[in-house]
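User: For my dataset I need records formatted as: sequence, then structure tokens, nothing else. Please produce one.
Assistant:
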Amino acid sequence: MERLMLEILANEVKHGNRPNNSFESSSFTRVVDAMKDKFGSLVSKKAKHALEKSMQQFCRLNLPSKECIIVGDLGCASGPNTLASVKEIIELIDSESRNMNYGLPYIQVFLNDLESNDFNSIFKSLPLFYDNLEKYGRQSGSCFIATMPGSFYGRLFPDHSIHFIHSSFSLHWLSQVPWGLVNEKGLPINKGNIHIGKTSPPEVRRAYLDKFANDFTNFLRMRSIELMPNGRLFLTMLSDNHHRHDAYNALDLLAMTLNDIHGYREQELRHIIEKEGSFKISHLETIKVLVGDAFGNHAWSLSRGFRAVYESMIVTYFGDSIVGDFFNRIHAFYTMEKSFLDDIKQPKD
């Protein structure tokens, strides 16, 4: 794997993409794809299994009477993997259709993200995406993809117009910074953290949780209006592992060097969903994966991965002059943290 990473890096250098410059997200995607091929992805595997189960239940209720399935993918972002979830959903619908001896339905997909998202790059990728669907067995003109810009904390679609709504790793982004993160003197009460860290006081967690509860309740309420009867809502979200004292996660590493994002615990999600009352929980599972699990404990690949995901946000708030040094520090802090955890896990003589 190290050789593979070095080969990819060497190829990028040939194209002028040196390590001290911006490392393209497409290059990081090649590394991640290679790691998945060799080791498999725990999150993807378990999430796909849950999605398959949800889609089977959905198709049994809807395929006999539906000539066109309407799908919404919320928080789609833009990049090489934007259409990956859509492709998987289409393949699952087609597989269930064949298993049930039905013809393949038309599929209309709406991709959603904020107005600032680079939808043009998605449009440019659609011809190849449609070609691949035809190779897979879909007729030309049987799948239609459009965009629906806007915040998913508000209304996006007409009443009862969507069959299946999917969102992956988007709902941890709050609609705005929570209130109550400063004291009566206007000083921050979460000093040294950029999210709910291990050293955050209880009132910080309460402020984030209250804001998340409000946002997530709005999200559920809007989706309950937009979904058709027998519709499905499938969400993959970040969770909270701070009850593990030996755990290091992505936001802890960012905090060591800078986010108004955080994951929430399973019981908190269940309480919010049941309190809002529009949805019945079909499946709720926590998949525990640490940073090292996702990146194979390679500090190089982790720091490049962080750069691919977070660079635009860092530049927006702090400018591009700190980018190189910032992500070098991510590398250093991860190496130091991992070394410390490895030491304390060694068996005592």
